[in-house]
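Data card: per-record layout.
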Amino acid sequence: MEKESCSQNRRIEVLIVEDDPRIAEINRRFTEKVEGFSVVGTASTGMEAKDWLEVLRPQLVLLDNYLPDVLGVDLIWHIRQHSRNTDVILVTAANETEVVQEALRGGVVDYIVKPIQFERFRCSLEQYRDQREQMKQNGRMDQYQIDQLWKGGSSLSVSAKQAASPPSVPKGIDPITLKKVQRVLLEGGSQGWTAEEVASQLGASRATARRYLEYLVSTGTLRADLSYGSVGRPERRYFFTSVRHLG
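The structure for this 247-residue chain is written out next.
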């Protein structure tokens, strides 16, 4: 196993548990392409994973199911018992119903079936990151917010899901966060906002703020102009095309 450095602040630290070195490297590269994540270690066996979990205390584990000395779904229960602040995304070729059920019982936050597609992988990590940010901001949550954390909740009926759902938005855009971005923009008056300013108000990453701002540009709610700061560096500043777009 090989520890990898992580000097960035506020990044979500990730432990990769994968016995195939090629796939472990793919997971590492994919993870570090997503804003806000850093791989701090890799392990190829369950025993190595347990050692790293104790030393590193990562926020997230990307876990394969078929390891040389243990099944990933069994390792999940060790994580639940000894590393309760660590979340798990299962990344595996296993698609048997009993494996999926055991992963659900163990509380994994997502289940990605190999071969990995980067877009699916990216959406999983971004959703996880946004949920963590949302949890930090809210001391209490209403039913809709709780339902969103469970991706609509498998136990909800179709009609209940439809009733709880806001107007459809693309993947990677959370309706609750979108409302918060709109509220921040409204408070900015006619001067507009940069992605960095919105991120500061939300307590989110700049990349997250930019993603929502560019989505609002695509819908016609916002327009973006380039402005030049005191050092001549251009930056995008966002303005409402009309307040009535908020509806």
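Known properties of this structure: The beta strands are 2-3, 12-17, 37-43, 60-63, 87-92, 110-113, 193-194, 222-228, 234-240. The radius of gyration is 20 Å.

See the next section for split statistics.
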